[in-house]
Amino acid sequence: MYPGSLRILRAVLIASLVGVLGMGVVLRGWLAGLWAPPLGFSELRSAHSHLAFYGLVFPGAWWAWSRRGAQPPGPRLLGLYAIAVLASTIAFAIHGYSPVSIAGSTVVLGVWILWAFPRFRHLGARSWEGVAGPVVLASAIAIPAVAVLSSRDDPAAGAVVRAFLTWLLLGVAAPAALARAHAPAPAAWIVATATLGAGLALGPLPTLPTRALLAAEGVILALAGLASTSSTPIRIGWTVVGAGLVALGAGLLPSSYPVTLAGLHFAALGPVLVTLLRPRDSLLSGWSYLALVGTFSGAIAAPAFVGGVAWPRISALVGFAVVCVWIVEAVWYARATRGLRGVSSPSMCFQENAPCET
Q1: Does the pLDDT of residue 343 top 80, yes or no?
Q2: Is 33 left (phi over 0), alpha (psi -120 to 50) or beta?
Q3: Residue 358 lies in a domain
Q4: Residue 173 near residue 272, CB atoms below 8 Å
Q5: Are the beta carbons of 253 and 259 closer than 8 angstroms?
Q6: How buried is residue 285: exposed, middle or buried, by Cβ count under 10 Å (0-12/13-18/19+)?
Q7: Predicted local confidence at residue 341, as pLDDT
Q8: Confidence of residue 144 (pLDDT cuts 50, 70, 90)
Q9: Are the C-beta atoms of 236 and 275 separated by less than 8 Å?
Q10: CA distances (Å), 341 to each of 6, 95, 154, 244, 350, in order?
Q11: Confidence class of residue 126 from pLDDT cuts 50, 70 and 90?
């Protein structure tokens, strides 16, 4: 294990968490009419989503796998990765898709592929780790496709982006989180197939077979989450995510932008990120936080079902409350770990040698 890699991962995770939550508050407040920052909305939204996946999803998965004994990328490669994430995020926020953001994304993509190829050897086993191989390659195809379509103002770019986000969240972050929570793994190729179909169903190819795979993905996540060692609220959170995917696959919920965006935020802020960071006896693993994230996500999805101009403001206020919980959690973590090295924290397990696993 490279100690330098863990230090870089920790720094990237903390900085990205601050950036993603901060931009999220700005975007929600903007939609609610509370303020109008000088940057363009679409550019800031692009920076927010890319930083979430470049700086949280993959580093979070690497961190979780390292806690299970897997080797993360080396310090030099991670250092290059961190620089690329920073450069692309700034470029996305100012210019959207530009030479700098595309170059940074290319470096990010290269690191992903280097990490993903060894995962293929687990594809035939009952392993969460093997899911990432084909999913990352599919995402690798999506990145340049999004760049080209966006440069042409092609509306198909949005559908490819939804597939990309779905693949990374359900095919990289969720398996790493479930592995860290000791959830029993199905055959990796089954989960990978369901994940790829789910991305196509929510993105550019919503056909009957892909929607069936979307529902299958929901069943897999719900059953695995219930069988995990996470807290009861987080296990229920996994069940809600799974049930939502089944409902989308069965056509019981519309796969509209507000609904898919709400589901993305609930899964990411709820069971996925919380399980990846593995907090213990904290606000994040309790019922109150799950209810808060559910209310926030519900306010995002509500315009698809109920009219009213108040929903953006409600989502902004509740989203700010979610950020406050993370701030309290971060302060708790800092106080609990001050002067401690290699000692398990009651909060987020960010120590390099902390025995955080159960």
Answers
A1: no
A2: left
A3: no
A4: yes
A5: yes
A6: buried
A7: 46
A8: confident
A9: no
A10: 13, 41, 51, 41, 10
A11: very high
Give SS3 for 200.
Answer: helix
Residue 161 is predicted with a pLDDT of 87
Percent of the chain with pLDDT over 90: 61
Q: Which two tokens stand for residue 199?
A: 């991305």
Contacts of 98 (CB under 8 A, 6+ apart): 91
Quote helix, strand, coil % in the chain, to nearest 5: 75, 0, 25
Place of tokens 């089944």: 246
Coil vs helix vs strand at 340: coil
Mean confidence (pLDDT) of the chain: 88
- With H, G, I as helix, E, B as strand and everything else as coil, classify residue 150: helix
Average pLDDT over residues 158-168: 91
- Closest listed residue to residue 177, CA positions, set 56, 73, 74: 56
Give the range of the structural domain holding residue 288, as residue numbers without chain letter. 3-337
Q: What is the CATH number of the domain that holds 302?
A: 1.20.210.10
pTM: 0.88
Domain annotation covers residue 354: no
Q: How far is CA 176 from CA 63, 127, 173, in A?
A: 9, 10, 5
Angle at 199 between CA 198 and CA 200, to 5 degrees: 90
